[in-house]
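Trying the structure run again after the queue cleared.
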Amino acid sequence: MDAQQITSFVASTHQVFTTMLSLSVTASKPYTCCAVPRFENEVSGIIGMSGDVQGMVVLSFPTTTACNVIRSFTGMDMDPTSPDFADAVGELVNMISGAAKAKFEGKNVSISCPSVVIGKGHKVQQPSDATCITIPFECPAGAFSLEVAIKNAKVAAKAA
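Done. Tokens:
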């Protein structure tokens, strides 16, 4: 993973939150995650990436922040147990990942359908052969993070 790819995810998060939610976001310094991150947040939207870039992206929120973000996104309060709540979280990670992959010039990249996990203390296993970077964000709705664990497929093929 290179710095330009991380910059793509920061810029895409800023773009989606500003355009779709009317929320300004500030990214803090990215850092490397441990091999098996344990989210302290209760809501995670997960999307896979395949093709020239392989791995996954996890958008993770505390429940309160997720509720505030979804309210900004949809214009209404939603119960976290509602299927529409999970759909909205999934759509946010989809938009961020889609905008980021569009910035990967010269690479053929596909993203999967998003999945959403809701529950305290859940774990999301990142690919063990990909570098995992956590990007913390702050916005008026609260704090959240974006974890990016991706590798270039050509690098993976050489390793095999």
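Confidence is low (pLDDT under 50) at residues 155-160. Worth checking whether this holds up in the mutant runs.
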